[in-house]
Structure formats: structure tokens, C-alpha cells
């Protein structure tokens, strides 16, 4: 790394708390070398993917882009990177997704412009930049270096790191930039619409960050949040010492209309007052949640565990059930199972018929550690709601 300002910028990036998923295609390769050659890269980089081939890019975006080097494509890349960063993130740690796509000098002469697009996406901000380079002014390595400068500067800006930036652009190569900001209502609507996979509310400032990054997830409607929920999470967290407790509400219900933004905010407020983390997602099914929260421990009741392993909910196909849950197992997910009343009888994990291939995914919460028969439905009924 020959330029001192680059090293200073990267050191500042690695010293910041912000982490990123980075998707690069068609250039800016030197930016990765700069990021990785300065100690502390693991503080910043959650994941880097280089979707260079057409097939790789299409799989990344879930479609074939109309144009691979374009504003639309780079914004879709940064959104995909942001969603991936959310899945890998720790509550309380700011994250962003960075997308870059370029069409630079190559072994073959290009009829179109030499250009690149950059986009950075956070929970409430989208920034996009476009630079058209003068043809014939630089070779491939030099064009890659110029675009790498802009990638490092974009990462620094997203990490709120200020430093000297030395641009090597010609005066006629002025970048074109656009940005958009989102308020909380817009963020939640993006989750409901399926554009963003989740919104994380970090209210638990007492729990120390986990070295493993593993989340302990207790899903529910929490209408209302009650002592039973809090006690169950407390017991589950004591069983998984190295984990971050997070309650989770799906804005999408398999059998009901999506929650309104105002209703979500009302339920979130309960967790703010209780000082507990809550995540708003758009996945009502546990096998989808396993993809959303890889490596997590899900806290569930015996009634939910019984449904999870019942072929009835998989089209009556036991093989399909095993295949889906095995996929959840491969993502590193486990289930902590608390006792619940099923058809009038209190049952625990040991009372259920769990397939042998899946038994190591399930861990019992003993009845002597937790049994509380209170329910949100009964609370609402007692309140006349």
C-alpha cells in the first residue's frame, strides 16, 4: 500500500464499530487488498462476494439484470448486501451493504463507456454514485485503482470516518451522486413489502456482546409482552451463556393480514420500556427464520415443536419435512423447547416423537426451570380486548 492516505483511511474504518457485506463485480479489486492488508479487517468485513460471471450475478440478485453495469443493478447489489449483513449482524452493531459494478478497460476494446457504479445501503439511507472514465487515459490497472479509491472512500463514509481523499479523476470525470433517506415508518414498510428482511431494535444495553454472534430468538406476536415471555427468555439465555437474547415479531402472518406500521411500533414500544432487543422480520415460518437468523437458538413451546415435526404441515410428506428441517440444521440452528399444554395435557420435549436425525437440534427446557401457563390471549381476554 503505497499511498499513506489510503492506510490512514482503512485504519479509521477498522477502528469504527460499523461492519459491512461487500459485493464487487468488474473491478475495484485493489480495495479488497487494502482492506485486508491492514490489521483489524475482521472488525469491518462480515463477508465479501465477487459475482463476476453472469450466472453468479443472476443468482445473487435472484434474476438476470437488464444491464450488468447500471444504477439499478448496483442498488440491487447494495440492498442484497445489506440484507445479508443484517443476517450476519449482532444487535447494536451498525451495518451496511456495499455494491460495486464496473465496466473497465479489458483485453477487448469496448464500444461503450468505461464506467463504474457504487452504492451503499444502511437501514435509513441509500447512496449511489456513477463515474464515467475517459477512454484511453488509463490502462486496466489504473482504472481499477481509481475505482478502488472510490470504494474505500464509500466504505469510510458509511463508517463515518473522515480523512483526506486524493482523487485521481480528470476534471471532466465528475462523479454523479444521488441519495435517499428513510424514516422509521418507511423502514418498517420496506420490511412488510419484503424489500428488507428485518429491522433490529437494540434496547438491551446491559447484555455484553457475544463472541459467537449467536442470537437466542423468542418469536411471537407479543400482544402483549408479559412476564412469561421475559422469564422464558431469561431461562433460555442462562442455558446458552454465549448468546444475545432477541425477541422477534413477524410483520407477516400466514393466516392474517400483515401488521400495520402503527401496530408494529406500538408493540416495539413494550420492548423499549423493558430494555429488551426486538427484531421485526417478514418470515412467519421457522424454516425461513432459520435462513434469516443462521446459527441461532430458537426458543419455542412443545406445541410448536410438535407442529415442526408433523408431516401434516409439509403436505403430508415426511421426507419433505426431514429435508426442510435438515436444511435448518445445516444453517446451525437449534431449538430450545419449553413445556406447553397440548390438548389439555402439559407436555415437554421428551413427550414428543422427534425423528432420530433431528434429535440433536432440540434441547429441553426442564419443567422445574420453567412452567408458566399464562398466555397473551388470556391477558387480552381479561382486559376485554
Automatic annotation (TrEMBL):
Name of the protein in its database record: Cytidyltransferase-like domain-containing protein
Domain (Cytidyltransferase-like) ranges: 218-381
Molecular function per GO: ATP hydrolysis activity; nicotinamide-nucleotide adenylyltransferase activity
GO terms under cellular component: cytoplasm; nucleus
Lineage: Eukaryota, Viridiplantae, Streptophyta, Embryophyta, Tracheophyta
InterPro entries noted in UniProt: CinA-like_C, Cyt_trans-like, Rossmann-like_a/b/a_fold
PANTHER family named in the record: NICOTINAMIDE MONONUCLEOTIDE ADENYLYLTRANSFERASE
Amino acid at each position: 500500500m503505497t499511498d499513506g492516505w489510503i492506510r490512514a483511511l482503512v485504519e479509521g474504518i477498522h477502528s469504527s464499530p460499523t461492519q459491512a457485506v461487500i459485493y464487487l463485480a468488474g473491478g475495484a479489486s485493489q480495495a479488497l487488498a487494502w482492506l485486508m492488508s491492514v490489521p483489524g479487517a475482521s472488525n469491518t468485513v462480515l463477508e465479501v462476494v465477487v459475482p463476476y460471471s453472469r450466472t453468479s450475478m443472476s443468482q445473487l440478485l435472484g434474476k438476470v439484470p437488464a444491464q450488468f453495469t447500471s444504477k439499478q443493478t448496483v442498488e440491487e447489489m447494495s440492498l442484497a448486501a445489506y440484507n445479508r449483513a443484517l443476517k450476519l449482524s449482532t444487535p447494536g452493531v451498525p451495518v451496511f451493504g456495499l455494491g460495486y459494478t464496473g465496466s473497465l478497460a479489458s483485453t477487448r476494446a469496448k464500444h461503450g463507456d468505461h464506467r463504474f457504479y457504487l452504492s451503499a445501503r444502511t437501514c435509513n439511507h441509500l447512496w449511489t454514485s456513477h463515474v464515467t472514465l475517459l477512454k484511453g487515459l488509463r490502462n486496466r490497472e489504473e482504472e481499477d485503482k481509481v475505482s478502488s479509491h472510490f470504494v474505500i472512500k464509500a466504505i469510510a463514509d458509511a463508517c463515518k470516518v473522515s480523512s483526506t481523499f486524493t482523487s485521481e479523476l480528470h476534471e471532466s470525470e465528475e462523479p454523479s451522486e444521488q441519495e435517499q433517506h428513510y424514516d422509521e415508518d418507511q423502514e418498517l414498510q420496506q420490511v412488510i413489502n419484503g424489500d428488507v428482511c428485518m429491522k433490529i431494535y437494540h434496547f438491551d444495553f446491559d447484555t455484553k456482546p457475544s463472541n459467537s454472534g449467536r442470537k437466542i430468538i423468542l418469536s411471537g406476536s407479543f400482544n402483549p409482552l408479559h412476564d412469561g415471555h421475559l422469564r422464558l427468555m431469561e431461562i433460555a439465555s442462562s442455558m446458552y451463556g454465549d448468546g444475545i437474547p432477541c425477541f422477534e415479531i413477524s410483520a407477516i402472518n400466514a393466516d392474517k393480514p400483515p401488521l400495520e406500521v402503527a401496530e408494529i411500533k406500538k408493540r416495539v414500544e413494550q420492548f423499549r420500556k423493558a430494555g429488551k432487543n426486538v427484531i421485526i422480520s417478514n418470515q412467519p415460518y421457522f424454516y425461513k427464520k432459520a435462513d434469516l437468523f443462521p446459527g441461532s437458538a430458537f426458543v419455542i413451546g412443545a406445541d410448536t415443536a410438535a407442529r415442526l415435526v408433523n408431516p401434516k404441515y409439509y403436505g403430508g410428506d415426511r421426507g419433505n419435512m426431514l429435508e426442510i428441517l435438515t436444511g435448518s440444521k445445516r444453517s446451525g440452528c437449534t431449538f430450545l423447547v419449553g413445556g406447553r399444554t397440548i390438548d389439555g395435557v402439559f407436555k415437554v420435549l421428551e413427550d414428543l416423537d422427534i425423528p432420530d436425525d433431528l434429535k440433536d437440534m432440540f434441547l429441553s427446557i426442564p419443567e422445574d426451570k420453567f412452567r408458566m401457563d399464562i398466555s397473551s390471549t388470556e391477558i387480552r381476554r381479561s382486559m376485554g380486548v
